[in-house]
Amino acid sequence: MTDTSARNGPRRESAPAASADRTRCIRWMLIGAFVGIFGPIAGFLGGTIVDADQLIGGLEPLFVWLFLGMMVGGVGVCVGIIGALRWVKGNYHLE
Q1: pTM score, two decimals?
Q2: DSSP string covering 18-59, please?
Q3: Which uninterrupted H or E stretch holds 5?
Q4: Residue 16: which H helix or E strand, with range?
Q5: Which helix (H) or strand (E) is 62 found in, with range?
Q6: Closest CA to 83 of 38, 37, 26
Q7: Three-state SS for 17?
Q8: What is the pLDDT of residues 35-65, one digit of tens each?
């Protein structure tokens, strides 16, 4: 007997597994986009809500909160990019 699995090439995922992975990739892209957009906005709003008379380590609270919002937004953008790369790598856009 010959082994036919080597001749047939790599196995393809079943439809439910491919659909679940595609959904996960799209979810990562959407979550990353929302966090990337609303992270800096939330940081700006948090900085304006905090009392402006106090200094945090010699820095104004608006700067600190906006910086933290930008960091959170950057992480969100990275998550979105990872989701997009997984989606493209899986060739889900071709189906």
Answers
A1: 0.70
A2: HHHHHHHHHHHHHHHHHHHHHHHHHHHHHHHHS-TT--BTTB
A3: helix 5-8
A4: helix 15-49
A5: helix 61-89
A6: 26
A7: helix
A8: 999 999 999 998 888 866 777 677 888 888 9
